Input
Amino acid sequence: MKNKNIETSKFLSYVLRHKPESIGLELDAEGWADINALVNCAQQAGQSLDEALVRSIVQGSDKQRFTISEDGKRIRAAQGHTTSTVSISHTRKAPPATLYHGTATRFLDSILREGLKPGQRQHVHLSDNRQTALAVGKRYGTPVILCVAATRMHDEGVAFFQAENGVWLTDRVPPEFLSSEEV
Output
């Protein structure tokens, strides 16, 4: 069952963040999809999915990648969208003094030279704790934690947002606001 949940979570991430059209699903501008439409489109695309499994994945996700609407009828990915049709209106928020970003040592020189960029995503993802950043960095190789002088950036007019799952978002982090921390 655990493998089925992991597989389903990856499928939901793919569809709700990147390629809703791959199963004929439409997301609104805030990234919401009707749960029934998601289930129906997934089933027509050959995926074994039902509403109970969707809700189980959302409730059981330690990373809280997905959000169910207050009325319980819609679902969306909390952040990480690469599709140009979605632009979630996150509320601007003052960040803590330092935020963290986990990456692999092989990317460090480039990042310290060019800063953090969103890549295909709409925002750079940051954490308010080292443990989360370390876990992210480990996914890409030998980890390194980058410390972001978030308050300094904010004081200079850079916008920060916090997604529903606690992930901090910003458009980019210039190199002058970065330092690396040995793991």
About this structure: The mean pLDDT is 89. Residues 146 and 180 are 4 Å apart (CA to CA).
